Amino acid sequence: MNPAYDVIIIGTGAGGSTLAHSLAPTGKKILILERGEHLMRSKDNWDPEKVFRREIYHTQEKWLTKEGGEFRPGQTYLVGGNTKVFGAALLRLRQKDFEEIVYEDGISPAWPIAYEELEPHYQEAERLYFVHGERGEDPTEPPASKPFPYPKLSQEPRMREVFNQLRGLGIQAFHLPIGVQRFEDNIAGSPCIRCNTCDGFPCLVNAKGDAEQACLIHALRHPNVTLLTGAKAEKLETNDSGTRVTAAQVVIRGEIKRFEAETIVVSAGSINSAILLLKSNTSKHPNGLANSSGLVGRNYMCHNNSAMLAIDPFKKNPTVFQKTFGVNDFYFGKSGDPIGHISLIGKATEGILKAEKPFAPRFILKFMAEHSMDWWFQTEDLPRKENGVVLAPDGRIRLNWTPANRAPHERLIRHWKKILWKIGFRVMLTQSMQINAVAHQVGTCVMGKDPSRSVLDTDNRAHEVENLYVVDGSFFPSASAVNPALTIAANALRVGDLLKRKMGVSKEAEYAKN
After folding, report:
1. Per-residue DSSP letters for 464-475?
2. What is the pLDDT of residues 106-141, one digit of tens each?
3. How would DSSP label each residue in 324-376?
4. Comparing C-alpha atoms, which of 461, 303, 296, 484 is closest to residue 388?
5. Cα dist. 251→77, 235, 269, 289 in Å?
6. Is the whole-model pTM more than 0.85?
7. DSSP 6
8. CB-side exposure of 306: number of CA atoms within 13 Å?
9. HEC assignment per residue over 134-145
10. Within 13 Å of residue 230, how many CA atoms lie on the same side as its CB?
11. What is the distance between the alpha carbons of residues 227 and 358, in angstroms, rounded to a whole number?
12. Residue 71's CB: how many other CB atoms inside 10 A?
């Protein structure tokens, strides 16, 4: 008896939704499972108290640290996954990120695939996700076959002033690649209104280039594609020999259902995908599905991230849409140097600062917001076997994580403070992200050629299970120092092409269905 579906995709983030978009025109029967629901459009989407203080779009789950303490993760279970609240900075990995890099705190390993294998898929992902930018400005940008599909976003006066000041100091500031539906040659037809509630907020007007808007809604226009929400995959079943997955056990509103498919693709996020495989243990896979290497859940990485509020007390910053440029001059550096990526983030407002510091006097927060420029620092976290996710005895997720490569990150912040001082900023307040900041999660089902040292092969297929794939950030051998979302999407397109060839779908047949 044939399974009801050709493909089951678990998760609707950057990996799952992009893969669904790739496979939808084939006519194959596709079931997409999402444990969350659709985002409700309401004024709450733009309420900093509810978004940042009450975290209404993050799960209520409590995860455990390695010491046994509880924390609430910044994990979003919605159709579109964490991309519903991301800042839409969509950069490619640098070409050198695919090679081995030696840092003072350890090694960032080489990838088993080269940048060139992903380049055409990066180009398509930039088109799908509405990425605006300008080639040739970023000193570390990798080779690209075409220009950005959408032109760089314009800068408001204060941003343009600082951009030029930095360039005057020899800093190669560049227009940040941002994924929003903003078309400045057709403002009337642009969904994006360039508001101050983009970075960290869900978009009330559906203008952000998130996975749902960029890919999923288009995939669902095909009658062969079905989406089930409120459907949490609990376990994957295999055949008797353990060589193939046969079905997914899913809890839907308290009821357990099972769905069979020829191919199952896991894309629940690096943490939850690893947990699902660990929970799917059998006599043939006693330590978890596809885990003979013992690496499922290991090598978790999440970047070293910090935010800065930089204040020029003598000059106001009336910018609304601030996140328009970045700096990669220090991206690689050398041992003993500041290392990492710097970019602007969404503009701090009095409401956002009040949500973060509810007991601070409003007049101080108002002054800070009116005079601040807000920065993000990102340095590579390194893979370590002891960093990872496991199931606690009570069934909860335990995240064992000690960040690596911190020293160059701290030097980067100190160095940037000196640069900002030269252009008038006198107060600089920084905050490092802690274990709950899981938005950039990667690495728990690493890809490689050696089955004893990796979970997935270079096609993102499990070494031990011939029809099981993982297409979220789990496959990353290293984290790089840029947001992983565009690479996850580009790789999902690559895997989509591989699956179409495996299913015998010709391009002509696909175009006929489209």
Report:
1. T-TTEEE-SGGG
2. 999 999 999 999 999 999 999 999 999 999 999 999
3. -EEE-TTSS--TTS--SEEEE-SPP-HHHHHHH-TTS-HHHHHHHHHHEEEEE
4. 296
5. 15, 10, 18, 19
6. yes
7. E
8. 25
9. CCCCCCCCCCCC
10. 5
11. 40
12. 15
